[in-house]
UniProtKB/TrEMBL annotation:
Record's protein name: Uncharacterized protein
Keyword Transmembrane helix: yes
Record keywords, A-Z: Membrane, Transmembrane, Transmembrane helix
Highest taxon, organism lineage: Bacteria
Length: 57
């Protein structure tokens, strides 16, 4: 299980960095992507719920 987690960290980082780079600027995008990549098991469901909540309002 830990191997899967370690493999997904860089993938999650790159995907989120690419999607947030244009909106936030380089430094903020890198820091936020690192934080998200390391804590993705907790932050991913929260991010999905946040986006669903934004769409409903």
């Amino acid at each position: 299980m830990i191997e899967i987690y370690l493999l997904l960290i860089p993938l999650c980082f790159l995907i989120y960095l690419a999607s947030s780079f244009a909106r936030k600027g380089f430094l903020k995008a890198v820091l936020h992507s690192l934080l998200l990549a390391i804590s993705w098991p907790i932050s991913l469901p929260l991010l999905v719920l946040k986006r669903l909540f934004k769409r409903s309002h």
